[in-house]
Design brief:
By secondary structure, the chain is of the alpha/beta class. It has 2 domains: 2-14 and 67-184, Rossmann fold, CATH 3.40.50; 19-65, no CATH class. It is 39% helix and 15% strand. The chain has 7 helices and 6 strands; from the N terminus they run E-H-H-H-E-H-E-H-E-H-E-E-H. It has helices spanning 19-26, 48-65, 72-79, 96-105, 122-127, 138-148, 174-184; strands at residues 2-6, 83-89, 112-115, 132-135, 152-155, 168-171. The protein has a 6-stranded parallel β-sheet with strand order 3-2-1-4-5-6. Strand 2 (83-89), helix 4 and strand 3 (112-115) form a beta-alpha-beta unit. 30% of the residues are buried. The mean pLDDT is 97.
Length: 185
């Protein structure tokens, strides 16, 4: 059975999950189309350490209430019998129970969840012999493809539109990812 590495935030969850919290906390009216880079600091007028503290305090609520990306539940439900689903996230390890509760509440199957606390997923992808990765962060997708030599499906968002090498495949939704993987498999 082939093993897939799957990012959580912005891939399985809607890429706009954080925006209602950001808008409320900083009195903004930001939509996903306004987010042109992955780092959200440019949207707020506070120092990075203050923003990091806000995010750390707000993370549990965001992660416990994040909406699913459209089509994710159906496609992952189909894949659970055909592939090993390894969710690899930059979330910190202290958020594992909240993350597992979210998967259970949303009735999502998983074989393994690894919260690594960093965006550098290469070592984890190698450790678990991941054969294909699904990601929303542009530099992660490129690095995973180049360092691991595996295809990476990059879920298209306004914040990841930089050019990509041929081994990184841009998909617009879960159904498109499913169609690509059927041909790859």
């Amino acid at each position: 059975m082939k093993r897939l590495g799957i990012d959580i935030d912005g891939t399985v969850t809607s890429p706009s999950s954080i925006l209602p919290y950001l808008n409320k906390a900083f009195n903004l009216n930001v939509t996903l189309s306004d987010v042109k880079e992955y780092d959200l600091l440019h949207l707020v007028d506070i120092p990075r350490d203050e923003f990091a503290a806000w995010f750390f305090d707000t993370e549990p609520e965001i992660y416990s209430r994040s909406p699913l990306a459209e089509g994710a539940k159906e496609v992952l439900g189909e894949w659970k019998e055909r592939y090993e689903l390894y969710f690899i996230s930059a979330r910190a390890s202290h958020l594992l129970e909240i993350t597992k509760e979210w998967f259970t509440k949303n009735e999502l199957a998983f074989h393994h969840i690894e919260l690594i606390g960093t965006h550098n997923k290469i070592a984890t992808a190698k450790k678990y012999n991941i054969e294909l990765f699904l990601e929303d962060k542009h530099d992660n997708a490129v690095a995973i493809h180049e360092e691991c030599g595996i295809p990476v499906l990059l879920f298209d968002t306004p914040y990841n539109r930089e050019p990509i090498p041929s081994g990184v495949i841009r998909v617009t939704n879960w159904n498109e990812a499913n169609e690509w993987i059927k041909k790859w498999d």
